[in-house]
Amino acid sequence: MEFESKYEVSRVATFIRTHGFKRVALQFPDELLKESTGVVRALRKELQSCGESCNNIGLYVMADTTYGSCCVDEVGALHINADCVIHYGHTCLSPTSKLPAFFVFGKAPINASNCAKHLCNYALSSKKPVLVLFGLEYGHAIHDIIEASTSETTRDKLHFADAMSQSMKPTKTSDVNGDCDDASQKTYSIGGLRWSLEQGLSMEDYSLFWIGPDNSAFANVVLTFNDCEIVRYDVTENLLLTDTSQQRRILKRRYYLVEKAKDAGIVGILVGTLGVAGYLSMIHQIKEMVTKAGKKAYTFVMGKPNPSKLANFPECDVFIYISCSQTALLDSKEFLAPVITPFEAILAFNRGSKWTGKYVMQFQDLVASTPVGVENSGEEEEARFSFLQGGYIEDHDLQDINKEDEDGPLALMKMTQTALQERGKDHKTMVKKGSTKSGVDFFASRAFQGLDINNNSNAPEPFILGRSGKASGYNHETSEH
Fold first, then answer.
1. Radius of gyration, CA atoms only, the chain
2. 84-88 and 58-62: which strand pairing?
3. How far apart are CA 107 and CA 136, in angstroms?
4. What are the CA-CA distances from residue 2 to residues 9, 15, 89, 246, 312 (Å)?
5. pLDDT tens digit sequence for 75-96
6. Could you read off the pLDDT of 100-157 as tens digits, one per residue?
7. pTM (predicted TM-score)
């Protein structure tokens, strides 16, 4: 019974039977793949007990997902014409675009009494109200933690987030909400959790208490609410950890990548999802913004990115990774070019954008709330200062804007401005030119461009015999003793 309870076999069977699904895809992450046969066996037994109408239901196990295992793999499910997806294990609960889904979070072990003790002690020592967030795999124990931690002294200081519904219907792009769903009611959602703030308070007025491991979900919370005091209860060690400096240090690294992306001439857009609602709108918006910023954009669909894959495109100075919030932060130290998020791309390529400290992880929040592109005004055409190169840089496309429409005096004035900014050939140039315009220019500047085939001669080339023998001593080589 513990196995059936952990994987919620009865609830999954009810979901399938209620909606009349006939082809069901069961998605498992790599760490739970060994449990898939037991889950299928138990689920098949439960469905057969419901009657003959459930005997013809097809169950298909999916592994090695196209992108991150936390997202619903709609691409793999559509290959088998599945009616729905049952997702097992850790999930980001990103909205799907085509198929309904049911999520089984699992039930990770936790010492509820010990967690409640640390929570009460922290609430009493904190001067702010405490908002409790948790990994979805610990949602089964939240009721016990609430009962054990609620007392007269902590009742008004503790606020618990609620887990979203385990069932999900396909979402249209226009229906996708952001982290703050309603500005008037201050309702927030992140990583499958939802909560409302008290009237007159903001997130900065709360201290955050996270229950769970130091994983991508926790990093998402730290970056999104970086102005809040955050502590983490380590379930494995039964300890309360207050040092989140390592996670906050990520912000400094991300700001450096933003400055590096500003100097890029060729931008690669990495498609990190084909199922999360709103990804197509985000791709079009990013591509339009990059083009208007005077850069060349290329779109790549390659599954899970790694250094070897991206090394095949050395002409790209930076990559923009469009994926769910929990897989968007790639550690690109081993990559030839940095990999940034859509939010960082907007900061880099929208002139005048400033980083206020707020960090947005979900690209759905940027689809309709961020202005696209760069206006071709006189101010925008001015050279920008690069902190990394220590000088002013002119982007290629921005240098050529409206040249045909300029009259004589205006053209002369711009030539004079350029002459004043640039020094002679014997001196260093104050204004640097941007990098390569496109992949064609990059290829033309390469020292090696492939085999040099002489197309001018139609005569066949003679055959040449190669070497024979072993590498330690070919037949034509004379051995010296």
1. 29
2. unpaired
3. 9
4. 11, 20, 16, 37, 48
5. 889 899 999 999 999 998 888 8
6. 999 999 999 999 999 999 999 999 998 899 999 999 999 999 999 998 887 767 778 8
7. 0.77
**Most confident among 39-53, 65-79, 93-107 (mean pLDDT):** 93-107
For 179-192, how does the pLDDT look when each residue is reduced to its tens digit (9 = 90+)? 554 444 578 888 88
307 vs 331: CA distance, rounded Å: 10
The DSSP string of 414-441 is HHHHHHHHS--TTS--SEEEPS-SSHHH
Cβ(318)–Cβ(260) below 8 Å: yes
Contact 286, 318 (CB under 8 A): no
The encoded tokens of residue 479 equal 């051995």
**Residue 444, both tokens:** 């033309």
Q: Measured at the alpha carbon of residue 231, what is the angle toward residues 227 and 235, in degrees to the nearest 5?
A: 145
Query: Using CA atoms, how far apart are residues 363 and 346, in angstroms rounded to an integer?
Result: 11
Q: Give the span between the Cα atoms of 29 and 12, in whole angstroms.
A: 17
* Higher pLDDT, residue 423 or 239: 239
Q: Which amino acid is at 44?
A: R
